[in-house]
Amino acid sequence: MSADRPINADVPTPGEPEPPTREEKQPEPEQSPQPPADKGAEPEAAADKTETKAVAPPPPPPPKRQRQSIPGALKGIAALVLVAIIFIVAAVIGGSGGGKGDAESAAPAPPATSGSKPSESSTDTSAEQLGYPSFATGNTTRVGGSDPATNAAGVALAVFPATTPEQRPAAVTLVGEDDPAGAIAAAVLMSAPVRAPLLVSDSEGLPDPTAEALDALDPQGSKETGGASAFAIGDVAAIDGGKVTQVKAGSPAATAAAIARLRDRLFGAPPTHVVVAAADDLALAAPAAAWAARSGDPVLFTEGGKLPQATIAALKRHPQVPVYVLGPSAAISSQTLREIAKVAKKVHRVSGEDPVANAIAFARYADGSFGWNVNDPGHGFVLARADSPLEAAAAAPLSASGTWGPLLLTDSATALPDPLREYFLDVKPGYTTNPTRAFYNHVWVIGDQEAIDVNQQAEVNELAELAKIGGEQ
């Protein structure tokens, strides 16, 4: 990709007409929301219940509330993801016979994103208009949506560009906008052999970014997904047609236990490990989503400082599987570990005193086959906000593809936390004589500049940059 011409410079931006009138947005086709799933039994009783059903096209629904269209929300999205989004437009045009704009007309350069600018000079302003560094730098790529639904769609399309049937997932997982705990637990369905990326839905209908991503991804189900083209976690709108496997939601612990049972059925084997996290502090629990997507290890929850019956029942199904508790004793007490030890063969704690330190501790941790063990250069990373656990969970597919790597957290939009800066310095790549034979780091940045601004992204880029560390000059 040219340094002064972004990869998407000659491709129309989704949802916009020809360049002379690109300010005018055309309404997106409304999606037909599915009737909400029957909540069924009480939360704990429904802990392990899933059902597969064929979804028939519903009668014409009442008008759905208007949502922000994907073009406005995808400001600042990485160039790679923008290219993938083009295929959404192709799908819409193919189904409607056109009307979305001339596909051969040249698109304008990506718009500048919101947030602070590096400087007010004309040079920096031109660079920002070209998408640098807010879209991408040499060592970072931003998925820059302004809401979880948009970021989840961007991540899914980055991992599954969907230009051919082989590049499409067999299924997707739909989680509620208000269910970050369910999203963290459902990240395990991104692991092989299922490989279902997360998308965001709600009971009223599919958000526009989700509907458009589904048009491009076009999941058809497979043997590995039990024939399902979607897994719906709780009362969320699902897809039109195809088979939907519904996971009846309850408390976070009950929902996670039900997802773990579904995982066992689809994978056809017990897990190698189990992660237990605190539903009361999802910023501490969020890194478990990335590991679940990478490893296939399910995530279960404690609640209110106690070990819920749904979690105990899930642990009893695999008493020989070691359990790793993610979080400090302030979130998950030593008494809770003793309770886990009554039903599990081994129990270990991985922890940091706050969400930033906890994520770093998990990135560094290794115990046999468990843990990222990222203590040297040459890795991928995902960086999200600690106070956005749904977006952090939705980014989990990036930890199970491409430059596979752990989730790290920042607690500020403007400043990189000191412990995270020190960690990046510890794993900073270097070379002596030949940079083309070196190891490299890459960081995905999740969210727009309201979440993580361009100055913080630029610092991360510098910390990930390959450095000369010795040898001949």
What's the shape? Answer: globular
Output the radius of gyration. Answer: 22 Å
Catalogue the unreliable spans: 1-49, 51-130
The portion of residues forming beta strands comes to 5-15%
Mean pLDDT: 80
**Helix and strand composition category:** alpha/beta
| Secondary-structure element pattern, one letter each | EHHHEHEHEHEEHEHHEHEHEHEHEHEEHE
Q: Which percent range fits the helix content?
A: 25-40%
State the major sheet.
5 strands, mixed
Largest sheet strand order: 1-6-5-3-4
Count of structural domains? 1
Number of helices: 15
- Report how far apart the termini are: 29 Å
Find the count of extended strands (DSSP E, 2+ residues): 15
Provide an overview of this structure:
The two termini are 29 Å apart. This protein is of the alpha/beta class. It is globular and about 55 Å long. It has 15 helices and 15 strands. The model is unreliable at 1-49 and 51-130 (pLDDT under 50). It has helices at 70-73, 79-96, 122-129, 148-159, 180-186, 208-217, 252-267, 282-285, 287-295, 309-316, 334-341, 355-364, 389-394, 418-426, 454-464; strands at residues 50-54, 140-143, 172-176, 198-201, 230-233, 243-247, 274-278, 299-302, 323-326, 347-350, 380-385, 407-410, 430-431, 442-446, 467-468. It is 30% helix and 13% strand.
